[in-house]
UniProtKB/TrEMBL annotation:
Domain of life: Bacteria
Protein name: DUF1825 family protein
């Protein structure tokens, strides 16, 4: 069975995408959030990034050809911006840490 034929993989991919879309839409109003709302938004983004990191690790560890191609496509796409997947996650974490710092002051 192919990596992408797995119902679990399909469901997690769908849920990640939906959750990401919802958070991005919600984030459009971030400036209007009170302090607790901002904290909740950041926590949800951190949780989503953790889920995404685990999901991508599954791709990396899989021996499935399509999973490996997906990893290579991501690397190529990020490489166009001078980034590696790890740098992308590091940048996301720095952004979230900066956002945390801004609400602490």
């Amino acid at each position: 069975m192919s990596f992408f034929d797995s119902e679990i993989v399909q469901q997690e991919a769908k849920q990640l995408f939906e959750d990401y879309q919802s958070l991005i839409q919600l984030g459009g109003n971030y400036g209007k959030f009170d302090r607790e709302g901002k904290k909740m938004f950041i926590e949800q983004m951190e949780a989503l990034m953790d889920r995404y990191r685990i999901f991508m690790k599954r791709f990396e560890l899989s021996e499935d050809f399509m999973a490996q191609m997906t990893v290579e496509q991501l690397k190529t796409q990020l490489g166009q911006f001078g980034l590696t997947p790890q740098q992308m996650f590091d940048q996301m974490n720095r952004t979230l840490e900066k956002m945390k710092g801004e609400i602490e002051t």
